[in-house]
Design a protein that fits this description.
Blueprint lengths: L6 E7 L12 E7 L7 E10 L3 H5 L20 E8 L8 E4 L6 E5 L4 E2 L16 H13 L7 E4 L5 H12 L4 E6 L2 H9 L4 E4 L5 H8 L4 E6 L3 H10 E9 L20 H4 L3 E4 L9 H13 L7 E5 L4 H9 L6 E5 L1
Parallel strand pairs: 8-9, 8-11, 9-10, 11-12, 12-13, 14-15
Antiparallel strand pairs: 1-2, 3-4, 3-6, 3-15, 4-5, 5-7
Helix pairs in contact: 2-3, 2-8, 5-6
Bound molecules: NADP nicotinamide-adenine-dinucleotide phosphate.
NADP nicotinamide-adenine-dinucleotide phosphate binds next to α2, α3 and α9.
């Protein structure tokens, strides 16, 4: 019988970042693994997710997810293999669960979901087939009420959520798909993925660039960024346009209040809908999403980008780099 580990390594929150996170805000620790009790499984994590929402959890503020605790391990999406079980999940099962930022996790069996890795790598369940994928699908289809013929603009378009929003819109009959991202290479990538137009938001006013990229206006804006992008989209939205307010990454590391769109009152005359959402409220769409997305990926209709970092030691820097735009597609850390 293979020897089970008695210790594991994990990343704890050493200090709460002020503004941009730094490597000193994280600490790598080796800890003893507890004995399994009834109903628990031991998972050897093979990949973990770093996500923008984790930045909010590093602040000691009340939010829709509880804050991380100082000197306690971080958590988040992870995939791995069950290597010991006192629950109804057999040893050898590949699973998705919520205890990332560690090499091994003791998890209640009812908090892990078996995954099928026959046709896709396990890390797909952290991205295209996981939370970011459902965010893109639900945000576009249900929150923004996408209809065939809509012109769609998505910001953060080369990232995990954004790159899928654009591709789903194109596959679903959008009349035009426009994306913004943070480098010339990312702009080229968006064009390769089938976006009709794309621009680098560093190249000048977002409002002006969006005007050129969408001369006939837009019907849907999928907002990952907030700030100047939201203002530009409001200016460009057509009558009865819809905004899915998904994220506001431009302000996650801000230490001062950030400006709101100065043209918000345009929403009245244009009869716009601006709707915030959390992916957790759309689990009723998860089965439909996973089935459609699996087919699209298997048929080669959706291209999946992933940026990989290796080893738990690399996880803090992977998170910091994600906030600075080092990733194309989903940022994952393989363990
Ligand atoms: P991601 O887009 O893969 O990574 C974050 C990206 O944000 C970076 O690659 C960077 O790309 C961009 N960025 C950073 N600072 C920026 C700035 N000041 N202006 C414009 N872009 C900036 O991350 P993701 O996981 O797909 O998440 C995208 C957004 O969705 C985030 O706002 C996240 O919080 C949100 N989200 C919301 C939900 C929900 O339930 N509402 C669920 C998942 C994610 P560039 O190189 O292009 O700058």
């Amino acid at each position: 019988m293979t020897q089970l580990p008695t210790t594991t390594r994990q990343i704890v929150l050493a200090s709460r970042p002020t503004g941009w996170p730094t490597p000193e805000d994280f600490r790598l620790e080796t800890v003893d693994l507890p004995e399994l009790t009834d109903g628990q499984v031991l998972v050897r994590n093979t990949a973990m997710s770093v996500d923008p929402y984790m930045r909010g959890r590093m602040n000691d503020v009340k939010s829709y997810v509880p804050p991380f605790q100082l000197d306690q391990p971080l958590d988040g999406g992870a995939v791995g293999e069950v290597i010991a079980s006192r629950g109804d999940i057999p040893v050898g099962t590949q699973v998705l669960h919520g205890l990332g930022w560690r090499e091994h996790a003791v998890v209640p069996a009812d908090k892990v979901s078996p995954i099928d890795t026959a046709r896709v790598p396990d890390s797909a369940y952290l991205g295209v087939l996981g939370m970011p994928g459902l965010t893109a699908y639900a945000g576009l289809m249900a929150v923004a009420d996408f209809h065939e013929g809509d012109a769609v603009f998505v910001s953060g378009a080369a990232g995990a959520v954004g790159s899928l929003v654009g591709q789903i819109a194109r596959l679903s009959g959008a009349s035009r798909v426009v994306g913004s991202a943070g480098s010339p290479a990312k702009v080229q990538r968006l064009l390769d993925l089938g976006f009709d137009a794309a621009f680098d938001y560093h190249d000048g006013s977002v409002t002006e660039q969006l005007k050129q990229a969408a001369p006939d206006g837009i019907d849907v804006y999928f907002d990952n960024v907030g700030g100047d992008h939201l203002e530009a989209a409001i200016a460009r939205l057509n009558l009865h346009g819809r905004v899915a307010m998904c994220g506001a990454i431009a302000q996650y590391n801000a230490t001062e209040p950030t400006p709101a769109p100065r043209n918000l009152a345009l929403a009245i005359g244009k009869q716009l809908t601006l709707r915030g959402f959390l992916v957790g409220s759309y689990s009723h769409l998860a089965d439909e999403f996973r089935s459609r997305m699996t087919d699209w990926v298997a048929a080669g209709l959706i291209t999946v980008d992933e940026t990989r970092r290796e080893g738990l030691d690399a996880a803090p820097q992977a998170f910091i780099d994600l906030m600075r735009g080092a990733n194309t597609g989903k940022m994952v850390v393989t363990l």
